């Protein structure tokens, strides 16, 4: 086709033919912003965004002129912005790209074709204060490294702690990308004074591009100083959360330990194992093996500490109870089961009970002797029973019998 005929045809089709028959048909409008090399799509544009991009997918007819100079983006109070790029997706679908500086306010963007509006969308704006108010810190937790374990706690033994790990979940209704210019810090300050420990949490790109991120920091060295510490999480100058932790001495930890309950571990001939308050007295139900189980906890809230526990056998007439087992156990403020093992039933004939020892001092007793029966006299008194080591199991049995007696009386 001769060039002058082609130009004449384009002029007729563009200017004389009805516009609604040849105008581009918008299929979709999207926007995104860039910050620190990351692109965030269809979210409020923050105050520190570096650039904004609006993309328009247009369905162009075969007779429509395909020049990007025919398209523009109009923002309130600004000169029209020409298309930065125009790419063909297929025979009729084209993608227009407009790139410009952030408007700094919430505004409406209109896509124009030769001064005719093809479509519009709203570009929301996010201020710094709005972003900081939306950021939340969930589940701030402190982990103490005790031996080979990392234990979540509020109180720990100062001399046993090999290191601390502070962890939390950071959430936001929008992407976390705007916080690239703001440091997330964790400060540990001793209430007795001294220089605080300040740590900075760093996020990798996949975390900061999302709306949730797991934050973990750990100081290289933590002073083994007894006292209370305040842990403060802050995003810039905005404090997100503050919680309190305590480091105590070994002696204070040992004084807080107590036996909350006891059980017998029964091993049967068939191989199954069970727990019981008392060893069955009958020969028909006699277990093959018997061992103690002590439930130990600390009175300190949120405690985590290591202690060396011993189980000794009570043998009548012996000066020093023989040692059965010694083991280092992690104790918290919840019941921790300490079951050192079992003995053959024939070996416990000389044993009257088991003792739990800590640093040369008895902590609790589990008696193999049945609870004594009170014998009342004609005058209303009762005969004193033989020596019996009172235990939580005996306390529970007494309470159960008293309840049955009261219910029967009613």
Provide the β-strand percentage band: over 45%
- Choose one word for the global shape: elongated
CATH architectural name of the largest domain? Sandwich
Cα distance, first to last residue? Answer: 113 Å
Overall SS class:
mainly beta
Radius of gyration: 38 Å
Could you estimate the helical fraction of the residues in percent? 10-25%
CATH fold category name of the largest domain: Immunoglobulin-like
Mean pLDDT: 83
**What's the main sheet like?**
9 strands, mixed
Overview of this protein structure:
This protein is mainly β. Strands 14, 16, 17, 19, 20, 24, 25, 28 and 29 form a 9-stranded mixed beta sheet that branches. The protein has a 5-stranded antiparallel beta sheet with strand order 2-1-4-8-7, with no helix packed on it. Strand 16 and strand 17 form a beta hairpin. It has 3 domains: 124 residues, Immunoglobulins (Immunoglobulin-like), CATH 2.60.40.10; 120 residues, Immunoglobulin-like; 116 residues, Immunoglobulin-like (Sandwich). The protein has 6 helices and 31 strands.
Summarize the structure.
The chain is mostly beta strands and 410 residues long. The chain contains 6 helices and 31 strands. It has helices spanning 3-16, 19-22, 128-134, 205-209, 250-255, 392-409, and strands at residues 25-35, 38-41, 45-46, 51-59, 71-75, 81-82, 85-88, 93-100, 107-113, 116-123, 125-126, 136-146, 149-152, 155-157, 161-171, 184-190, 197-201, 212-217, 227-235, 238-248, 257-267, 273-276, 289-298, 303-314, 323-332, 336-338, 343-344, 353-358, 361-367, 375-376, 382-383.
């Amino acid at each position: 086709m001769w060039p002058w005929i082609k130009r004449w045809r384009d002029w007729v089709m563009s200017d004389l033919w009805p516009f609604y028959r040849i105008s581009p048909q918008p299929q979709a409008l999207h926007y995104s912003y860039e910050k620190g090399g990351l692109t965030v799509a269809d979210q409020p544009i923050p105050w520190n965004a570096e650039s904004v991009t609006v993309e328009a997918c247009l369905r162009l007819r075969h007779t429509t002129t395909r020049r990007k100079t025919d398209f523009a983006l109009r923002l309130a109070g600004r000169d029209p912005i020409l298309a930065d790029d125009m790419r063909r997706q297929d025979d009729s679908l084209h993608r227009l790209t407009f790139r410009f500086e952030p408007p700094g306010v919430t505004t409406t963007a209109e896509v124009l074709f030769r001064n005719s509006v093809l479509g519009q969308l709203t570009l929301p704006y996010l201020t710094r204060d709005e972003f900081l108010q939306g950021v939340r810190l969930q589940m701030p937790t402190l982990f103490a490294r005790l031996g080979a374990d990392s234990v979540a706690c509020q109180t720990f033994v100062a001399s046993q702690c090999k290191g601390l790990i502070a962890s939390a979940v950071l959430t936001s209704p929008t992407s976390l990308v705007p916080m690239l210019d703001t440091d997330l810090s964790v400060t540990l300050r001793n209430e007795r004074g001294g220089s605080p420990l300040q740590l900075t949490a760093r996020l990798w790109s996949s975390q900061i591009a999302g709306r949730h991120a797991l934050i973990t920091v750990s100081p290289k060295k933590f002073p083994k100083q007894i006292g209370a510490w305040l842990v403060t999480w802050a995003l810039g100058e905005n404090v997100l959360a503050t919680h309190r932790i305590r480091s105590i001495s070994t002696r204070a930890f040992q004084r807080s330990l107590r036996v909350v309950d006891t059980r017998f571990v029964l091993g049967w001939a068939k191989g199954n194992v069970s727990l019981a308050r008392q060893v069955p007295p009958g020969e028909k139900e006699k277990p093959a093996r018997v061992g103690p189980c002590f439930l130990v906890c600390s009175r300190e809230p949120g405690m985590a500490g290591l202690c060396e526990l011993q189980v000794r056998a009570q043998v009548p007439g012996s000066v020093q109870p023989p040692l059965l087992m010694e083991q280092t156990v992690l104790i918290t403020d919840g019941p921790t089961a300490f079951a050192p093992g079992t003995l053959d039933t024939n070996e416990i004939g000389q044993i009257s009970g088991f003792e739990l020892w800590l640093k040369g001092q008895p902590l609790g007793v589990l008696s193999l002797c049945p609870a004594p029966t009170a014998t009342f006299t004609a005058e209303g008194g009762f005969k004193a029973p033989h020596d019996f080591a009172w235990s939580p199991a005996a306390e529970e049995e007494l309470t159960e019998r008293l309840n049955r007696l009261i219910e029967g009386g009613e």
